Amino acid sequence: MGHRANFVIVENGAYKIYYSGRGAHYTPHILAQGLAFCEQYFKEFTEESVLMDNAWGEGGVLIDKDKKNALVFGGGWEFHNTPALQRLYCKRVVQLWPNWTIRWCDQGAVDFAEYLGIMEDSILAEGREPDFLELNDFNRQRLLEMRDDMPQCEVITLIKDGIVNDYSLDWGFDGMMMLIQESENLIHQMPEQLKIKKWKNEVEVTNCLLADYDTKK
Known about the structure:
alpha/beta, 6-stranded mixed beta sheet, 3-stranded mixed beta sheet, 7 helices, 24% helix, 24% strand, elongated
């Protein structure tokens, strides 16, 4: 299995897309080498007419010379699952790209396609759409079987009458999708046992859902 990446250069209103079969793990390091390096490095790969979809495209770097924007995603497991590390990376690497805007793409190839104005259904790979499972009695019990020593990977924040409550879910479980399906009834479905009494390290949090019942956002 490869680590496929798209490298994109935008200049004078036109873009070129390149394909790398092994570059996804190294995208943050590639961008950190600066503009001159990236321009030369991208040309070592095959030019393509389309972006990979969001299943095959595991990483990428997009450099817009016209607007001085650089987009990046990939970098392996550590970057992909650590939003705090992504934010720190963007703050640091921008020092090597003065007067540029550096953006980490949470939705990968979808963000690239939307930025380029070429978003279409083919970018959304089959089987990658959300699966909103039912929060039935069996799945509710699975939620409650979480151990206290599990990483705090998914966090649900509910705000009601100015009171903020945070709840923790287990990584790898479909609980987030089940709770989204509960819609406005979500606040009545959150088990008290999942309430966070003491926060763990932020780097463990990879997915968040915030529902503000006061402002309806």
